[in-house]
Amino acid sequence: MNNKHYDLKLGFACNNKCKHCVIETNREDLIENKLRTDFSYGEIIKIINSDSFQKSNSITLTGGEPTLRKDFDRIIKYLGKHCNDKHITLQTNGRLLGKHLELIEENIKNMYYVVAIHSIDKDVHNEIVGVEYTGANSYDETFETLEKMLDLFGKDKIKNKMRIEIVLSKFNIDTLVETVKFLGNMGIRDIGISYPHADGFFNKYGAEGVKSFSLSYKDCKKAISELYEYLKDNKNVKVLFEEVPYCMIRDNNDNLLAPTSNLKSMSNISSEVNIHLPSSESIYFNDIWNEMHKHSNKCKDCVMKENCLGVWYEAVDTFGDEGFIPISKDELNDVGGMENVLNYFR
């Protein structure tokens, strides 16, 4: 691998309390063990100046919620002085991002934004992000930022500046297609849709903890087929699936659908990835990537089994084979063959 990526989690503090949050159990463990949940500014600068960080081609800043930090602008300015040759991605819920947009754009040459929006239905989105805990209207604040971004970058350039990220759950699956259509009509061109990574919930609370918000692949099927029909007719909108293998791309009669150029998977690692969290050393993510995945029992009959890692292990351990339909040789030929389907993963 020639590309190197560094994922820097600035801390666990957040102004949302999402039902699917992948770091909440980590934060709870840190607090229980009386360990710090956020990097200090000095620690962040030390990481930025480290060899592994400086040798990385791309950087992701995430949390928690990065923009919640009082020193966020200061961090951005430092990155602008010392890392402006890198592609930098900011993962955010967007609620406070609008206050920092101009400063970010003044200092960072290649900033890309990933903004979390989980439903176009205000009540659904606010329920998912735990508005009862935050005491604020997360939906309105995030959409105000999104509109500001569209005004600042324009619809012609927004594709190169940001992606909306939707995490699938039993709460928003019924509004998924409506949400993608609405965002597409707004001018958003890239939308990520992720099957939730619930290993922390699984390890701490078992399958019932996962089922409190997650859903089986069978439950995703109808929304995936409807989304496919929309994308087939709207090539200007691109959807990136995470942890949705190609065997799930089927119509309501379970017929495998042919690949489209604007429906892709991002469930692969094409770079050397380091992840750094508070109170831990930098983790070389590639070493544990395969171990985080698992095939269902049905996968042994799939012609794609050598080209597919499977899905998050806790999804299989929670829901079993539910929803998995192995791809047959005849189906593969009907949709253009192995090489054509592999384009979904590229």
By secondary-structure content and strand pairing, the structural class works out as: alpha/beta
Fraction in helix: 25-40%
Mean pLDDT: 93
**How much of the sequence is in beta strands?**
15-25%
Brief overview:
The protein has 346 residues and is α/β, with parallel strands linked by helices.
Notes on the structure:
There is one protein chain. The chain is α/β, with parallel strands linked by helices and 346 residues long. The protein has a single domain (4-266, 273-341), classed as Aldolase class I (TIM Barrel, Alpha-Beta Barrel). It is built from 15 helices and 12 strands. It has helices at 24-32, 41-48, 51-54, 72-82, 101-107, 122-128, 131-134, 138-157, 176-186, 199-211, 217-233, 286-289, 313-319, 329-334, 338-342, and strands at 4-9, 58-62, 87-92, 111-116, 162-167, 190-194, 238-242, 263-265, 272-276, 283-284, 293-294, 311-312. The mean pLDDT is 93.
Write the layout of secondary structure elements.
Elements: E1 4-9, H1 24-32, H2 41-48, H3 51-54, E2 58-62, H4 72-82, E3 87-92, H5 101-107, E4 111-116, H6 122-128, H7 131-134, H8 138-157, E5 162-167, H9 176-186, E6 190-194, H10 199-211, H11 217-233, E7 238-242, E8 263-265, E9 272-276, E10 283-284, H12 286-289, E11 293-294, E12 311-312, H13 313-319, H14 329-334, H15 338-342
